[in-house]
Amino acid sequence: MSEAVAAASLRGPPDHLTISLGRLLTHPLYSDVEFIVGEEKRVVYAHRCVLACRCQLFHDMFVQQQPVCGPQEANLPFVFPNVQPDVFLAVLEFLYTNRVTLSGQIALEVLTSAVEYGLDDLRKLCVHYISSTLSVQSVCEALQAAVTYAQTDMKGKCLAFIEHHTKGIVKTQGFHELSDPALLAILQSDLLTIDEPDLITCVREWAHVNSVVLSVSVPDTAKEVVHELRLFLLDPEELTALEAENKKDNFIPVDKIAEVWKFHALKNPSAISSHLLQRRRGTQPREHHKYLSLHHKSKITKDF
Could you tell me which residue ranges the BTB domain spans (predicted)? Predict the structure, then answer.
């Protein structure tokens, strides 16, 4: 008797399958579903079996579309008016081929779609692309997306980039459009390469822009973020100038400025939150900083 031969699972070149499926993308051949996408109402052809087996969201959409009154309802197109066609096509490209073609113009929106559609592998590809192509102009928008969609790794890479290019980034439109949580993530960093008076000026500009956009007063707009401004790093002359500027818009609560004057009078920072005394990487040295240094040395001694 001949010996039994063990069964084996063999695999052909993976690119062949990818290329073949890619040819079906947006092709009307054998298509059984249509999408009307974007303001320009672009028609996109697709195949239910591919989308349903690759994405639970599409599977549920097709199930809900099961005809009730007759077969004609099953042929009605799905309308996605708020999605850019290029973004939608990038999602379909991934579903058909497990690859995606990204650019700076669509990457963040593809990331949004990936999160909304539950496509974790596509999300990872978007995060990798965005994190590796950061620029002074794009990083704040990327940080905002990272905060909004809880992308911890991408948030960390955005913050590291901001820390190295702070002076240019705080002047961008993207910085002025940050939400409170995204701006707070920046202000909590000790590694920003900017002096505190310059940072305060830029955050004030952020508050004025958002005050107009949100129709909220400047003090209410800034009430959370001002707590992360390190006013104790300013010398008396800078604090006097800040106080005069503050009378125009009440950007910073008066009691916070009073705390700083008290520190300058007593030279005792012991009752102040330690992170507000910490000099950032870009902080220029000032005479009174020696008292902050003594406080930190004293605190370290007590801790040990």
Answer: 31-104
